[in-house]
Amino acid sequence: MKFTARSIPALLAGAALIAAAGLAPATAICAEGKQTNSAKLGKPLKEAHDDLNAKKYADAIAKLREAEGIAGKTAYDQHLINDMLGFAYARTQNFAEAARAWEAELDDGYTPQSEVPTRVRQLAEANYQIKNYDKAIEFGTRAIKGGFADEELRTLVGQAYYLKGDWKGTLRFEEGLIDTQVKNGQTPKSESLQLLLSACVKLNDSACETRALEKVVTYYPKPDYWYQLLYTMRQQTSGNDANTLQTYRLMSEVDVLRSPDDYTEMAQLALEAGSPGEAQRVLEKGLAKGVFTDARAKAKNQRLLETAKKTAATDQASLQRIEKEADAAPTGAKNVGLGLAYFGYGQYDKAAEAISKGLAKGGLRNETEARLLLGIAQLKAGHKEEATKAFHEVKGDPSLERLASLWSLHAKQA
Fold it and tell me: Measured between alpha carbons, how far is residue 316 from residues 249, 309, 323, 334, 376 in Å?
């Protein structure tokens, strides 16, 4: 990931110089009170001030450094020196020295409270610029807690955690930031979500990565993000054919089936599950998209398609008989099986009706899977509210619960 900070010079443009009336001996007055510079420092400070106005920053810096060595200077004299040094160093792009000067004056008792927010933000920005990420985090956090940090400064703090290699710190900060934005009814910033995701990857935490990707697709449902999330989930369901097929269904729905092997495996799993119509449709989709570029793979999947077609023809011819048997059966297993068949043929209302009957009867081998399939059928039949309710009732299998949540999200975005 590449990161960029705001332009420091742009932020510094509004920095205060010092007493607006100039620096005549013993007349510079602090904005908050009656404090004045000492008589000894009046002349060198005024000369430095004039150099700053003339944009002679090197000359101003030299005079200010000389002024620091004058015996008898007061704490307030040093405050004025630091204020002007910070400005001069910033104008010459020497942000390390600018940060030192600003930090020295920040809490010295002479900086007006009205200027503290600007100074704290400048210190966060300047330290970020010189890669002093601990200090950038320190002052950025101070700005956040003080209520005067904008979104870009919050992003900077998250980036500072990341760039210093503190992945757990990045995770904590970004999760807190995202939660706050959501509670305030705001859309989390893409930068925050990407930092969260990248921190999970760096921690090699697949569960964390999945949760982060779920957040990403919630607010930025781009195909690449859907693919990344569902490909990760497909890997996690490897070894569980039923759950893998359910993952493929969502991948197909959001159009992120990309690999030829994905199309082949989904078709084979659908055939084995008793949904030949679904197998036929996914293979026809893959062939129409031209995903099978290898001649042998194309021939293999063409043969698989012919098998799916023959099985589907036989299956469709027996649907009326199966429906009668299902209605007469004491448990709902055959009703759900019938619903799966209708689902494969794109008859979603009939699929939902049959699955609902099966759920009502009970005695199912996998009620969680049946409820998820019910929600998908209802959604594809155009019944979003009923589908959302069904998705919320999917309980018992963590993988299927996550898929149900993502189907519900997709329903809102569709």
Answer: 21, 10, 11, 15, 21
Largest CA distance in the chain: 107
Tokens at 132, concatenated: 């002093």
For residue 34, what pLDDT band results from cuts at 50, 70 and 90?
low
Dist CA 194 CA 213 (whole Å):
9
CATH of domain 8-164: 1.25.40.10
Per residue in 333-372, pLDDT (tens digit) is: 999 999 999 999 999 999 999 999 999 999 999 999 999 9
pLDDT 10s digits, 129-178: 999 999 999 999 999 999 999 989 999 999 999 999 999 999 999 999 99
Three-state secondary structure call for residue 25: coil
Per the CB < 8 A criterion, the answer to whether 381 and 411 are in contact is no
Q: How many angstroms separate the Cα of 53 from the Cα of each of 22, 60, 88?
A: 11, 10, 10
CA distance 198 to 1: 8
DSSP string covering 208-243: HHHHHHHHHHHH---HHHHHHHHHHHHHHTTT-HHH
CA distance 177 to 155: 9
Joined together, the tokens standing for residue 85 give 């040094």
Helix, strand, coil content of the chain in percent (nearest 5): 75, 0, 25
- Predicted TM-score of the model (pTM): 0.77
CA distances from 178 to 145, 150, 173, 258, 270 (A): 16, 14, 9, 31, 39
Q: Taking Cα atoms as reference points, which of 33, 94, 105 lies closest to residue 68?
A: 105
Q: What is the DSSP letter of 396?
A: S
CA distance 1 to 105: 36
DSSP labels, 377-388? HHHHTT-HHHHH
- DSSP 3-state assignment of 57? helix
In angstroms, the CA 189 to CA 220 distance is 10
Q: One-letter amino acid identity for 54?
A: A
Distance between CA atoms of 261 and 294, rounded to whole angstroms?
Answer: 12
The domain ranges of the chain are 8-164, 166-219
The token duo for 302 is: 């063409």
Under a CB-based contact definition with an 8 Å cutoff, are residues 178 and 196 in contact? yes
- Is residue 188 packed enough to be buried (19+ CB in 10 Å), middle (13-18) or exposed (0-12)? buried
